[in-house]
TrEMBL record:
Annotated ranges, domain YlxR: 10-82
Organism: Liquorilactobacillus hordei
Designated name of the protein: DNA-binding protein
SUPFAM superfamilies: YlxR-like
GO molecular function, one term: DNA binding
Keywords, alphabetical: DNA-binding
Pfam families linked to this entry: YlxR
Membrane-spanning intervals of the chain: none
InterPro entries referenced in this protein's UniProt entry, alphabetically: YlxR, YlxR-like_sf, YlxR_dom
Amino acid sequence: MVKQRKIPMRKDIVLGEMKPKKELVRIVKNKEGEVSIDPTGKKPGRGAYISLEVAVAKKAKEEHTFNKAFGVKVPDEFYDELVAFVDHQAARRELFGDAR
């Protein structure tokens, strides 16, 4: 009998929904207060998750979600970079399936 593995779940801070960790990307704030995308999920610092959907990334930009989540001023360039990253990841998923 094969044991069913537990799927790690995380909360998308834009939508407020729990989703499997593989469907999300981690955004991290380090000790210096710098906010960056963490595709590996292993960078040190305070993390927050967002869905790998372009519409969600654009909503995060409109609402300045990470300014509120991390308590720092996040530049608009970061949100543009996030939208581009999410768009790229969504395109990869379409091409290659769920394999990361």
